[in-house]
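#structure-requests
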Amino acid sequence: MAERVQLGDSQPLLIREAQVQAVLTMPRAIEALEAAFRDWAHGRAANQPRQRVHTPQGTLHLMGAAWHSKGYIGYKAYFSFPAGTRFHLALASAHTGELLALVEADWLGRIRTGAASGLATKYLAREDAQTVAILGTGEQAATQLQAICAVRSIHQAFVFSRTPEKRTAFAQRMSEQLGIPVQAAESVEQAVAEADIVCTITTAREPILTGAMLKPGMHLNAAGANSLARRELDTFAVGRCERITVDDPQQARLEAAELIIPVELRKLSWERVQPLSHIVGGLLPPRQSPEEITLFKSLGIALEDVAAAATVYEALRD
């Protein structure tokens, strides 16, 4: 059971990492994000882009959202310092402002980031997509692959990272976990050569996926970079994408270097960048042809956190 914390007259739940991990499955997270994005498209939710407060030693990150049709409002705050990053989320009633839960949100963040890519893949990847490439083997990589396998019948996965030992260990672990062959690739080119879906989830500062590597019919989830100092796709790759979506266009204008640089070079206009919520909500069509190259630029937004936290809270409150 989640603990109760006495704050004045209210007793919000204190939800620990292990409890989040126990109840927030990937299918449940994708379902929550899909419902929240659908409501957002129709004015029943709101998102505030991330803000950052810097010190010489580290950074405070703040982001808030409301899913008012479901009765929730909340914010996530996390501190990134050399010793590590700590994530916390406060979930409140959108009707009264009563604090409902305090959530340890490291695992929640990993799951919702994967779920966002899974949601985009559901609407934008080809129905017959069977192969996926994961570029990166860090803490977020596993949930990217889990999410894609939750929405498509994946028969084969490839993984690449710069460290051979890490990619081999990741391939073995995920193959056992998902029951599909996961193969360690020796290069980015080898990993994506046969892929229908590509996920980039790295800390790369310079592009690792180039336009020359893309082929018709691919779907891309670019999920690793959310600052102006980092990008995973080059301008040519972005230019080859017929459909470009983001989780929040307003936040993309502040953080998505993969899109900002092409816009500044006049290779892209913001009018071509579509909110994923509009596709989920039926305001825009999903993939239109088997040959289309589609891109989801994931930044990680507060509405995803609030939707995931609401799901955890509802599972534990009783």
